[in-house]
Amino acid sequence: MELDKFSYDNGIVRKFLIASVVFGIIGMLVGLTAALQLVFPELNAGIEFITFGRIRPLHTNAIIFAFVGNGIFAGVYYSLQRLLKTRMWSDLLSNINFWGWQLIILSAAITLPLGITTSKEYAELEWPIDIAIALIWVVFGLNMIMTIIKRRERHIYVAIWFYIATFVTVAILHIFNSFELPVTLFKSYSWYAGVQDALVQWWYGHNAVAFFLTTPYLGLMYYFVPKAANRPVYSYRLSIIHFWALIFIYIWAGPHHLLYTALPDWAQSLGTVFSIMLIAPSWGGMLNGLLTLRGAWDKVRDNAVLKFMVVAITCYGMSTFEGPMMSLKNVNAISHFTDWTIAHVHIGGLGWNGFLTFGMLYFLIPKMWNTKLYSTKLANFHFWIGTLGIIFYAIPLYWAGFTQSLMWKEFTTEGMLAYPNFLETVTQILPMYAMRAFGGALYIIGVFVMVYNLIATAKTGVFVKNEDAEAAPLTSTYKAHAGEYWHRVLERKPLVMTVLAVVAVSIGGLVEIVPTALVKSNIPTISSVKPYTPLELEGRDLYIREGCNNCHSQMVRPFRSETARYGEYSKAGEFVYDHPFLWGSKRTGPDLAREGSSKLRKSDSWHYNHMLDPRTMSPGSIMPPYPWMFEDDLDVENTNAKIAAMRTMGVPYPDGYEEGQAMADLDAQRQQIADGLAAEKYTISKEKEIIALIAYLQRLGKDIETEPVAQQ
Amino acid sequence: MSVMIIHIVVSLIIALGFLGAFIWAIKTNQYEDDYSPAVRILFDDEKKEKSQPITSK
Predict the structure, then answer these.
(1) Is the ipTM of this structure higher than 0.85?
(2) Which residues in chain B have their CB less than 8 angstroms from residue A366's CB?
(3) Per the confidence metrics, is the pTM higher than 0.80?
(4) Which of A58, A263, A300, A508 could be cross-linked to A252 through a Cys-Cys bond (beta carbons 3.0 to 4.6 Å apart)?
């Protein structure tokens, strides 16, 4: 048979690799800055654009979508062409995918420091960017599916299934979680409220980890580990089981982010059960990757690529064991809201994603530049300093998380909180925060060494932009053997595969979300809970803009240690008007759900001073000051539009409230706060932003105190 | 939200149908060749090796 002559597109792979490294460095440096700000709050320098609340989402988005995202595209574009023995279907789409993605990253890098955010973790980008993400993602998927259709290799290798599942699931998750009602070009409200918003968000958030940081990288593992070791994967059968089991189970695990919250108990239990089940496919996959090196461990000693990959897979194993453990309610009671979670995700991020990307880079750059790695010594140095970096990063944070959690829960023999001042539990762990920053710095040094090594490598070679290849065309006259029909349908029809993958992931998501959305009794309404006043609503938007939810939760869990500290535990009915929900996932500072309640209430002037310089009210606090909120006037241009948007989503403001009355109420309320402050000798114009923020903070937790909880 | 409900019910019915097909395929041992694909991916560079040395070490 005549062989087709064609070429593989290495140019697109090179572009994505470079983007991954460049944005990886930026994302890591932003992370290091955020880590240092926790130790040296002065590093905020009073600049609003680099406060922790704004750059923490910048760090997570840069690492997930820019570093890992570009890494995914690079690895997929490289391996897909070779596994299918064809060039990408369309070079144009490849390039639209590349430039579109970089534009999205650029817009994220601009909007997040400006405080343009939805507040939903890993989905902070506002609606116009959400639409762009969906479009570019579809371009990627279309290019991939069409490439699969015109392939010259009949069998679809397991790695490609992982890529397909990634495409399909991320598309669904992104679209469902991004249902927003735009108010202006840069402001929208989540369509869901309170507990429903939380469920959708963490269904997305968990699966962002599962289907953006895990499944595509498992695909890369199944391609690059065998290639780098030049041995077939340990068990191909296991890889098939790994794939199906993982995508069927992963999608159900989201609620483990909401244990002990106001999410209905059945949903929490479901999340826990499926999280535990996840150990099986995850460890099956990990062992499959590691055992691929059986009888070839001597290669690991000499080969930097394999070293990185072995540690990456080991980290995958550790975090996929730890994750299910943290999903147990008794463990979660300790670990949630603490730095334990941060340590956990960095085992995954630095170890699994980072090291696999580095291994891929050390493998691909010499290959595509047709040369040898410039320095094995430097690669080994990178490996060791990177590994040390991970250890120095994670261990202090495990320690910090555990220490702080135990301090929160400690009672004296008289039955009082042993550490009633939250700040004590923060200053206790500052040395651990410092060590964490040191670990992160080591890791980044390693990356810089890698960049030098890779540039030197590229200089010694010549880049092969289009790599010639040849393969026999796929015959269309394939005859199915008896009893083989379904095998062929499943394995060789990418569209059917895609549909099946959609189905597998949809069932899990739908079964969890639908009952919560439909069953009214899941959200008992509380008659005393009323919508926010216009001023409070504006204050809430400032809270979102400044990213307060990155450090402050608004969710009192039903533990004695929490009710003693914060007051009545949180109920689902309290959040019915919260578009979006602001429960948070981390308590770097104290919970604020009851900040305005009679138990915790502070004076307006306390908040005034605290926001101007937290250390005047709480010596030793690591919260940044917010001086600009005392200088900038509150933007009330869109207040009416915001009220109208809330009414569209069913928040019961009176008819026509946005046509005058809302602004009158807003003005009266801020006049009252400004007058109150003036009486305490704090002169400030009522127009300033800080007035709105104080109004919001003083409202928190107040509603359920006005009358006894009435459940319907 | 009511649009979502219809959408979901329909999806669920189709989904379960496909799920059944998938389980049936597995149970009747449709994945019979679970060895050669893993080996074949290692060979795709063979032609290239003649003209271009590959190194990653």
Answers:
(1) no
(2) 55-56
(3) yes
(4) A508
